[in-house]
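User: tokens in, sequence out, please.
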């Protein structure tokens, strides 16, 4: 009888130990969901934070399941409110219209220097624009490609021009916005838009060799920076001091549930140290006052 009881006790102890070990392992890992445009920055945070607090591991979430934190453009927060109760802003992302370099679309739009009104006519379906588009043979020939994924910048781009994402002309592309680059590369008449980190090479700081920027109606002293001759750093510097109506700029936020101390410590580190990598990975900085106020918020 004693042997039976000892065996049962040993099994229960082993089982409890395995459960505790599993819980400890689970509790030492936190996952972060991020769209592709922000992922290199998030990976840099993870790498640097591990040097300061090795006891908790942060990693990119796989698949479409739940995560402890989620990076998104601020106007997408309503979509995540059921899962997350708080968010903080860590920077801004800019979106520019693009086409494939040396394409027929690039030729048709060469020298156009589009203002906000012309961009609306080019990208969106609207009864008010229909006749204008028909009169503009270049616009009529072009095929617009926009993202349909929940994390796409299509919504931000549309809202910047007072439109809904359902009003885009042309074709919708599923999946990450990086696929928009692929779509226009395959279509000589394709035009799209994307974030700075998706259209500039983060190493050379120059536009990716297969892309061309659609010309915008900007002041002469900044127009060259928003051409194929410009650099990522020039664009970032300009957009941190002025926001032309032709350029979509949206805040980037991290959403979280607000009850995890390990997550709170990570967010404090991001606000105090992680945002210094924004420019390196194609994001604009927030002003220091706004960042400092949020450090107090996550304490």
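Assistant: Sequence out:
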């Amino acid at each position: 009888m004693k042997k039976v009881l000892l065996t049962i006790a040993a099994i229960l102890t082993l089982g409890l130990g395995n459960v505790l070990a599993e819980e400890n392992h689970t509790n030492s890992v936190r996952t972060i969901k991020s769209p592709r445009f922000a992922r290199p920055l998030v990976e840099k945070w993870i790498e640097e934070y591990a040097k300061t607090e090795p006891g908790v591991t942060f990693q990119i979430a796989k698949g479409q399941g739940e995560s402890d934190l989620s990076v998104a453009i601020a106007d997408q927060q309503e979509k995540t409110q059921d899962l997350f109760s708080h968010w903080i802003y860590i920077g801004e992302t800019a979106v520019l219209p693009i086409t494939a370099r040396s394409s027929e679309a690039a030729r048709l739009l060469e020298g156009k220097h589009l203002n906000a009104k012309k961009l609306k006519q080019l990208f969106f379906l609207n009864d008010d624009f229909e006749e204008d588009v028909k009169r503009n043979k270049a616009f009529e020939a072009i095929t617009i490609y926009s993202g349909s994924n929940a994390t796409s910048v299509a919504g931000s781009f549309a809202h910047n021009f007072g439109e809904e994402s359902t009003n885009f002309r042309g074709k919708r592309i599923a999946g990450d916005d990086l696929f928009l680059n692929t779509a226009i590369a395959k279509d000589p008449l394709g035009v799209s838009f994307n974030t700075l980190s998706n259209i500039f090479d983060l190493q050379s700081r120059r536009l990716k060799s297969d892309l061309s920027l659609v010309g915008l109606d900007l002041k002469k002293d900044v127009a060259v920076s928003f051409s194929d001759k410009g650099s990522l750093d020039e664009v970032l510097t300009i957009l941190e001091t002025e926001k032309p109506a032709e350029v979509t700029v949206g805040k980037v936020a991290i959403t979280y549930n607000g009850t995890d101390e390990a997550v709170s410590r990570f967010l404090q580190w991001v606000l105090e140290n992680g945002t210094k990598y924004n420019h390196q990975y194609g994001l604009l900085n927030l002003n220091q006052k706004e960042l400092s106020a949020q450090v107090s918020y996550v304490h």
